């Protein structure tokens, strides 16, 4: 059906629903395969085997909910894979295991809520991963352990409410970390501090920040780390407390510790005054006691006379 020497094949915007085993076996020179915007829901094991020259595969905008164990067979030369806008709910540890040359992986706009520890275990060449627009609420330590060459990590529009200390530590080449529009209410400073890179841009806009003194302290510490660049700090807004909701964090951050400072000052002054009062009262009682003792001695002496 197609010339045997074809290098670029565009089958996007059709009605394809199924990719059978070795569907492209006569196209050994194929370098680009576009299957986006179809209705593909099922991919057979080894569907792309024998495509040893393929460097780009686009499966975005389909109905794929699971990837077979043999999905990556024959894709040892693949550099770019897009599975964006499908129905994937998780990433296991075998689907990508033969993709030794992959540099860009787009898994955005799916329904992913879990990522197995070894999901990216064979993708040591990966430079860009996009997981934006999923249902990820947490990231386990070790999930990025093999991604030392990763430069861009997109996690925008998820449900992440905290970062485990050490989860970012393996990402020593990371230049961009997008955590905008998640559910972070506080800064996980120790988690960020474990990220030892030369320079990393961090995006945090759209999170429900709890504007209190601890947040100010942690952001101050984050700003003090020269390798971290908070590109959208000017756009961060408070979600709590209610009286600050919608206010720009930059406009209130200098005030967040004021109430706490005043409270500590009041307590300190109260304790001081109480202490002084106690000393004064004790001294007054002592003087009265000594005075009473003195008059008793005088009266006794008068009686003896």
Fraction of residues in β-strands: 5-15%
Question: Which structural class is indicated by helix and strand composition?
Answer: alpha/beta
Which runs of at least 5 residues are low in confidence (pLDDT < 50)?
261-265
Helix proportion = 10-25%
Mean pLDDT, rounded to whole units? 88
Q: Radius of gyration, Cα only, in angstroms?
A: 33 Å
Separation of the first and last Cα atoms? 140 Å
How do the helices and strands follow one another from N- to C-terminus?
EEEEEEEEEEEEHEEHEEHH
Per the principal axes of the C-alpha atoms, what is the gross shape?
elongated
Number of helices: 4
Total number of β-strand segments? 16
Order of neighbouring strands in the sheet with most strands = 1-3-5-6-8-10-11-12-13-15
Layout of secondary structure:
Blueprint: E1 8-10, E2 18-19, E3 32-34, E4 42-43, E5 56-58, E6 80-82, E7 90-91, E8 104-106, E9 114-115, E10 128-130, E11 152-154, E12 176-178, H1 189-193, E13 200-203, E14 209-210, H2 213-224, E15 228-230, E16 238-240, H3 249-252, H4 258-304
Parallel strand pairs: 1-3, 2-4, 3-5, 5-6, 6-8, 7-9, 8-10, 10-11, 11-12, 12-13, 13-15, 14-16
């Amino acid at each position: 059906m197609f010339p045997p020497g074809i290098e670029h094949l565009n089958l996007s915007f059709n009605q394809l629903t199924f990719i059978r085993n070795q569907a492209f076996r006569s196209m050994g020179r194929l370098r680009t395969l576009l299957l986006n915007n179809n209705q593909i829901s099922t991919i057979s094991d080894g569907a792309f085997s024998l495509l040893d020259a393929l460097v780009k595969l686009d499966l975005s905008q389909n109905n794929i909910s699971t990837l077979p164990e043999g999905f990556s067979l024959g894709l040892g030369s693949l550099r770019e894979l897009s599975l964006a806008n499908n129905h994937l709910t998780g990433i296991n540890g075998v689907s990508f295991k033969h993709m030794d040359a992959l540099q860009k992986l787009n898994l955005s706009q799916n329904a992913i809520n879990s990522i197995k520890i070894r999901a990216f275990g064979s993708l040591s060449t990966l430079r860009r991963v996009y997981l934006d627009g999923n249902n990820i609420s947490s990231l386990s330590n070790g999930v990025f352990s093999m991604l030392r060459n990763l430069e861009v990590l997109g996690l925008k529009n998820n449900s992440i409410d905290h970062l485990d200390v050490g989860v970012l530590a393996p990402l020593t080449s990371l230049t961009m970390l997008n955590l905008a529009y998640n559910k972070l209410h506080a800064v996980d400073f120790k988690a960020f501090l474990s990220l030892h890179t030369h320079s990393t841009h961090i995006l945090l806009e759209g999170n429900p920040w709890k504007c209190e003194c601890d947040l100010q302290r942690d952001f101050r510490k984050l700003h003090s780390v020269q390798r971290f660049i908070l590109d959208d700090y000017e756009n961060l807004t408070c979600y709590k407390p209610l009286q600050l909701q919608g206010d720009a964090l930059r406009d209130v951050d200098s005030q967040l510790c004021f109430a706490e400072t005043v409270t500590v000052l009041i307590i300190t002054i109260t304790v001081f005054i109480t202490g002084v009062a106690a000393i004064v009262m004790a001294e007054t009682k002592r003087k009265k006691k000594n005075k009473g003792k003195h008059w008793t001695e005088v009266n006794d002496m008068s009686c003896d006379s």
